[in-house]
Design goal:
This is DUF1203 domain-containing protein. InterPro entries: DUF1203. This protein has helices at about 10-15, 120-130; strands at about 1-5, 30, 50-55, 70-75, 95-105, 115-120, 135-140, 150-155. By secondary structure, it is mostly beta strands. The chain folds into 2 domains: about 1-85, no CATH class; about 85-155, Dna Ligase, domain 1 (2-Layer Sandwich). A 5-stranded antiparallel β-sheet has the order 1-8-7-5-6, covered by helices on one side.
Length: about 160
């Protein structure tokens, strides 16, 4: 079983409060025009007419050769984090295809795990890759613009205690 996740709430709240992005710049303030603006925190589209932020985001713990940075959208107002129980994120069904890449625990690309796949195949392709024990997570990016969309990892068992 896999869990999809967006940007951590701590990152989202910092940007929504005016923190500098991965390039040290203030997020840009824009107004959403609809479906082309997926929030990387709630993993839903920023509603048409709603305020949003555009910023450079690096979803990695440290600077290193594989720590890609790219533009992302974020609800300007506080939004709820995507919950793993919600299943496949809405934002991963609106483009025709996506780029996926597998990463090791030290956040390095594991060669041979990447590819571009139709939106309908993303869940099965991610599940397939996460059967490889070399991988700690899989990042899902826009196949057209390389923007980070979400992260998938093996689901952690819940305590029944």
């Amino acid at each position: 079983m896999i869990q999809f996740a967006g940007m951590p709430s701590s990152d989202a709240r910092a940007y929504q409060s005016g923190a500098a992005d991965a390039y040290g710049r203030a997020p840009e303030h824009k107004v959403s025009d609809g479906l082309g603006s997926p929030c990387r925190h709630c993993l839903r589209h920023v509603p048409i007419g709603a305020a949003m932020l555009v910023l450079a985001y690096r979803p990695f713990g440290a600077l290193q050769p594989y720590a890609e940075t790219g533009p992302v959208f974020l609800c300007a107002d506080r939004c709820e984090a995507y919950r793993a129980e919600d299943g496949m994120p809405t934002v991963l069904s609106t483009a025709p295809d996506y780029l996926i890449k597998g990463y090791s625990a030290d956040e390095r690309i594991v060669y041979g795990t990447g590819g571009v796949f139709p939106a309908a195949a993303i869940r099965s392709e991610v599940e397939s890759r996460l059967r490889d024990n070399r991988l700690a997570f899989v990042d899902i990016r826009s196949a057209r613009n390389n923007c980070w969309q979400a992260r998938a990892a093996r689901a952690t068992p819940r305590s029944t205690g």
